[in-house]
Amino acid sequence: MARDAAGETIAVFGAGSIGCYVGGRLAATGTRVRFIGRERMAEAVAADGLTLTDHRGAHFRLAPGSVDYRTDPMGLTRASLVLVTVKAGDTREAGEQIARYAPRDALVVSFQNGIGNEDILRAVLPGRTVLPGMVPFNVVRLPGCVFRQASGGDLQVEENAALDPYLSLFERAGLPLRRRAAFRPVQWGKLLMNLNNAISGLSGLPLREELSQRPYRQCLALAQTEAIETMHAEGIEPARMTPLPPDWVPTLLRLPDWIFLRLANRMMTVDPAARSSMIEALDAGRRTDVDSLNGEIVRLAERNGLAAPVNRRLVELVHACEAGPRKRWSGPELLDALRSAG
After folding, report:
1. pLDDT at position 1
2. Position 4 confidence tier, pLDDT thresholds 50, 70, 90
3. Residues linked to residue 139 through DSSP beta bridges, in sequence order
């Protein structure tokens, strides 16, 4: 008999910006959602509730006191579906908490950046159904616990019949799940896009402002070209995440501003508010996920006897900012640093 998800609880484990937005959209359209995250977010949500908006005009409001936001992983009990949105470096610890508190038949979906988080979860959760997923859009946190989807794209997840009871819930929330039979190419395709997180974080600029400046785009082109060459050495063909094939994107990025902006505006929508989560982490003095993004390219290169000096340099520069003092790099300054590394 097929499982009916109506009335069951979805737990969002690691509810920061992405978790609050996805879980908030589900909760605002009638799904029972339990958020689990850090104390500072719990306090903010208790005071302000949640407001969810997007670049297409959607607006949802959850009043203070109506959001089930907890800091204790015991909140995983009774969850039929667990959405994991912690940083990649916290994946193992998250899996251990899920193993301890979540029901054994709970479906687990990793909506995390990076490669292979689902493998870590599966190792910690033997016998359970764990699926990789991907959030293609940017979510920015605005004052007053407002979370705004600032770019487009559908949630993606590996195909599995265990998802069937939940499809209508995500559809109702305006977040349809696009199911993919082969998911690892999707992760590599998203990783190519996420190589910009380090560049955006070092610039300190909103995404549209950063990408409107050719020197920053040239930095990204260097990082992506190096990554694509490294992936090809491993036999990896990343999935297409834009209307252009991945191999063509660095060429687009190198174009003069007026040509790039005209073409890019036809292919994608990026809200002026969109910001890399790495900016927020660096501004707050928190650890970033650069080791799971640019660092993944460095490790892949090493496995194939190659060098990845551009991505290695980006990792080093982000770690230097983590250690302080926080520096904001101009485009020409960062491009010189990467060219000298490569």
Report:
1. 38
2. low
3. 149
According to DSSP, the residues that pair with 260 across neighbouring strands are: none
Tell me the two tokens of residue 288.
Answer: 């970033």
Q: 132-183, pLDDT tens digit by residue?
A: 999 999 999 998 899 999 888 899 999 999 999 999 999 999 999 999 999 9
For 274, counting Cβ atoms within 10 Å of its Cβ (0-12 exposed, 13-18 middle, 19+ buried), the class is: buried
Domains in the chain: how many in total? 2
Q: Give the mean pLDDT of 68-85.
A: 96
Residues 171 and 190 in one domain: no
- Range 80-105 burial, b when 16+ CB lie within 10 A, else e: bbbbbbbbbebbeebbebbbebbeee
Could you tell me if residue 3 is inside a domain? no
β 155-158/130-134 pair status? antiparallel
| pTM higher than 0.70 | yes
Average pLDDT over residues 5-29: 91
Among the candidates 138, 154, 181, a domain finishes at 181
> How many Cβ atoms sit within 10 Å of the Cβ of residue 39?
8
What stretches of the chain show up as alpha helix (H) in DSSP? 17-28, 39-48, 91-101, 117-124, 167-172, 184-194, 196-203, 207-211, 214-234, 249-253, 257-267, 277-283, 294-303, 309-323, 331-341
Separation between Cα atoms, residue 250 and residue 264, nearest integer Å? 13
Where residue 6 falls among pLDDT bands split at 50, 70, 90?
low
CA distances from 71 to 15, 35, 153, 239 (A): 10, 8, 30, 36
Q: Is residue 2 part of a domain?
A: no
- Does 309 lie in the same domain as 242? yes
The whole-angstrom separation of Cα 290 and Cα 270 is: 22
Instruction: Return the pLDDT at 342.
Output: 73
Tens digits of residue pLDDT in 302-326: 999 999 999 999 999 999 999 988 8
Structural domain boundaries, residue 119: 9-181
